[in-house]
């Protein structure tokens, strides 16, 4: 369980590679990186937004299929090609009037480090690098791409009594 007051969480920001997709990325013959996605993560992401939780994607990658996947799930805040994520994070929290302690950031590697040091509740998958594990308030039992996103979102929504509490839960 996440050892944090999840009732105050208003936004969850996810990195993609190694977080919402597995850390090994097959390459298309054209050289384009291809990613895996987890269906349970997808369900949780679209449901969380219906329940008023702001979900954002913040990735250094630029693959269009990533944008399409999360747009299809209703994510409005998709930040691609983030070379310095803390700058994008600052713009995001300012845009929505968020405080650091109202944000979970889910990351797995060094590019996520600065944001994870700032946000209220840094979380990581079980296969995150040691530096990220050392600053995380929660290390999931799930590896990146294997239900980690669902784990985080479900805990937040359950703590806010928004998990399976109305008919929105039973559809896409």
Automatic annotation (TrEMBL):
Matches recorded under SUPFAM superfamilies: HAD-like
InterPro entries named among the record's database cross-references: CMP-NeuNAc_synthase, HAD-like_sf, HAD_sf, KdsC_fam
Cofactor(s) this protein requires: Mg(2+)
GO molecular-function term, one example from the UniProt record: hydrolase activity, acting on ester bonds
Residues annotated to bind Mg(2+): 15, 108
Signal peptide (residue range): none
Family in the record: Belongs to the KdsC family.
Description of how the protein assembles with itself and partners: Homotetramer.
Name by which UniProt lists this protein: HAD-IIIA family hydrolase
Native organism: Marseilla massiliensis
């Amino acid at each position: 369980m996440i050892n944090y007051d999840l009732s105050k969480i208003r936004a969850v920001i996810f990195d993609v590679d190694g977080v919402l997709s597995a850390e090994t990325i097959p390459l298309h013959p054209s050289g384009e990186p291809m990613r895996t996605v987890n269906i349970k993560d997808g369900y949780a992401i679209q449901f969380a937004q219906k329940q008023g939780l702001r979900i954002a994607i913040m990735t250094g990658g630029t693959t269009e299929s990533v944008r399409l996947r999360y747009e299809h799930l209703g994510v409005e805040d998709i930040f691609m090609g983030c070379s310095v994520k803390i700058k994008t994070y600052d713009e995001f929290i300012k845009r929505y009037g968020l405080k650091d302690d109202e944000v979970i950031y889910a990351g797995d590697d060094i590019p996520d480090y600065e944001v994870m040091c700032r946000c209220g509740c840094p979380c990581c998958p079980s296969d995150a690098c040691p530096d990220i594990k050392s600053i995380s308030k929660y290390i999931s039992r799930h590896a990146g791409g294997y239900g980690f996103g669902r784990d985080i979102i479900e805990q937040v929504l359950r703590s806010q009594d928004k998990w399976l509490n109305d008919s929105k839960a039973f559809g896409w």
